[in-house]
């Protein structure tokens, strides 16, 4: 007998399978378009199977949920993501690439977690698998749980709780009614940005298939799966600007995009995170441009260098990780600046990775408040974010997350250092945990990953999903109390 909790989890998993099957239809069509019938059979079989099983399963395990606790939300999120990763690994394993099980899982995990890393060069990867990866990038950037909510009965009661286990960050949804409207508007915005980027790229000179693949992968800040190294050095300026602009939009808080759509510009001005994100990008670009100017005596090329540097900085700060210029020739000081900023990453509630700007702001204000109370012990000075006083529980969660993030990074680097040198281990760990996929001065290309053992790839996969799901859902499955039954679901 399947209890209520398992029934709910299974319903969400099967709904996600059905959505996955529907979203890889373009990959099947591209196989036909380019006469790749081997991959057509491979991907087409997965497409039909997941559609059928997903549709039947979500009907069989249909359950009307009106209340649930956080434990079930976390369980639903982690099991749904792991199921999607295992299913997506099947077409990679059955393809003509001759990938091992571990390598297939690695490609799948990188796809879903929007990590711009691959074991296979773009020239070797069939067009159908490129489209499959881009589709998974798009779903992973928005969140498969977010999409699966459409098939959840009375989803407006539990959707907010469930979404915040997949896309964590300061909340902006204050009621079920507001959530329903906001949820639908967010989907429309994400789809609109993707379609707009597709049109712009095609007008700028990319063919239809490259425009579609690039749009799906770039708006989710997962790099460019149809290019080796995500290398767009050879593209014209218009394409570079378009890619950089939409990578920036994908890295900012979704609430900002929602407020723009509602024309609430004053509310946008109150938010400190977008200001921090923008200032970080501009200041870092100016500093690196000055370093390049004085190091290489660039003279009249300073403005061109600033434009190129700005687009490259957006790439790393959005955790997209594509390559605009040869960063391997940058001075060590420039590399150090970028690496430190990669820890922060993008904004909260975005498709980007990292600690997130909102948490850094809260941590900084907590530190200054603590120092202030050391001087004025009886003073009452609450920590505020966007003018709103924060509760102690919120402060603890934000600061604890930063500690856990750094500890996870160090443990990941330690595990990787068994087979790699220290510098590579540290760089790879932060690149995987922030879902950037590449680090400054070096990109994770097929040749470089040849030196990585199966154990290293498993470690990298753990870091990828931990970074994408913001660590907590992944770590909780290792706690005994997480698996204890409760009745807090109706």
Describe this structure in words.
- By secondary structure, the protein is mainly α.
- It has helices spanning 4-23, 25-33, 37-60, 70-94, 101-112, 127-142, 144-148, 155-166, 176-204, 208-218, 237-251, 254-261, 265-270, 272-296, 302-317, 332-344, 357-375, 392-416, 422-433, 446-449, 454-468, 472-476; strands at residues 384-385, 388-389.
- Helix content is 67%, strand content 1%.
- A two-stranded antiparallel ribbon has the order 1-2.
- Strand 1 and strand 2 form a beta hairpin.
- The radius of gyration is 22 Å and the shape is globular.
Order of helices and strands: HHHHHHHHHHHHHHHHHEEHHHHH
The largest sheet has its strands arranged as 1-2
Question: Hey, roughly how much beta strand do the residues contain?
Answer: under 5%
Our measurement of the CA-to-CA distance between the termini, rounded to an integer number of angstroms, reads 17 Å
Radius of gyration: 22 Å
């Amino acid at each position: 007998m399947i209890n209520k909790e398992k029934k709910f989890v299974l319903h969400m998993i099967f709904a996600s399978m059905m959505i996955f099957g529907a979203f890889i239809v373009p990959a099947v069509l591209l196989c036909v378009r380019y006469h790749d019938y081997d991959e057509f059979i491979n991907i087409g079989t997965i497409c039909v199977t997941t559609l059928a099983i997903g549709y039947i399963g979500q009907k069989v395990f249909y359950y009307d949920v009106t209340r649930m606790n956080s434990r079930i939300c976390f369980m639903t999120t982690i099991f749904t993501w792991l199921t999607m990763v295992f299913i997506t690994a099947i077409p990679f394993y059955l393809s003509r690439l001759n990938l091992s099980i571990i390598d297939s899982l690695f490609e799948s995990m990188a796809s879903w977690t929007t990590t711009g890393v691959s074991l296979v060069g773009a020239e070797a990867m069939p067009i159908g698998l490129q489209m499959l990866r881009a589709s998974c990038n798009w779903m992973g950037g928005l969140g498969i749980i977010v999409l699966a909510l459409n098939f959840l009965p009375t989803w407006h009661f539990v959707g907010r709780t469930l979404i915040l286990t997949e896309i964590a960050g300061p909340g902006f949804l204050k009621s079920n009614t507001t959530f329903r409207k906001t949820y639908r508007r967010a989907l429309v915005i994400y789809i609109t940005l993707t379609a707009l980027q597709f049109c712009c790229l095609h007008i700028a000179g990319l063919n239809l298939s490259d425009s579609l693949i690039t749009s799906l992968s770039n708006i989710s800040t997962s790099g460019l799966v149809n290019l080796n190294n995500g290398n767009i050095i050879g593209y014209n300026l218009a394409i570079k600007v378009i890619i950089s602009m939409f990578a920036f939009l994908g890295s900012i808080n979704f609430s900002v995009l929602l407020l723009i759509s509602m024309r609430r510009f004053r509310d946008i001005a109150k938010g400190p995170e977008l200001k921090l994100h923008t200032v970080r990008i501009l200041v870092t670009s100016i500093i690196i441009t000055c370093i390049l100017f004085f190091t290489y005596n660039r003279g009249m090329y300073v403005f061109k260098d600033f434009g190129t540097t700005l687009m490259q900085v957006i790439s790393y700060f959005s955790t997209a990780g594509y390559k605009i210029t040869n960063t391997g020739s940058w001075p060590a000081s420039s590399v150090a600046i970028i690496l430190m900023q990669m820890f922060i990453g993008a904004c909260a509630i975005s498709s980007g990775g990292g600690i997130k700007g909102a948490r850094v702001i809260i941590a900084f204000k907590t530190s200054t408040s603590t120092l202030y109370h050391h001087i004025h012990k009886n003073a009452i000075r609450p920590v505020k974010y966007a003018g709103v006083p924060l509760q102690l529980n919120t402060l603890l969660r934000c600061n604890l997350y930063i500690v856990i993030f750094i500890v996870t990074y160090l443990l990941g680097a330690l595990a990787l250092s068994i087979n790699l040198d220290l510098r590579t281990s540290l760089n790879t760990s932060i690149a995987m945990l922030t879902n950037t996929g590449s680090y400054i001065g070096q990109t994770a290309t097929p040749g470089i990953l040849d030196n990585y053992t199966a154990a290293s790839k498993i470690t990298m996969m753990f870091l990828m999903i931990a970074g994408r799901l913001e660590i907590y859902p992944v770590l909780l499955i290792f706690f005994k109390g997480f698996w204890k039954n409760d009745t807090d679901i109706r």
